[in-house]
Amino acid sequence: MAGSTTAERGERQEPRTGPPRPPGPRLTRPRLLLLVLVVLLLLTGFAIWALYGSSWLRAEKSSVRGTRVLTPAQVREAADLPIGSPLISVDTDAVEARLRKKLPRIDLVDVSRSWPHTISVELTERKAVLLVRKDGRYTEVDAEGVRFAELDRAPEGIPVLELATADSPSLRRFPVSRLVREAVRVAGRLPDPVARETRLLKASSYDDFSLELSGGRSVEWGSSEKSAAKARTLTALLKAAPKARHFDVSVPTAPATSRS
Question: What pLDDT does residue 173 have?
Answer without folding.
Answer: 67
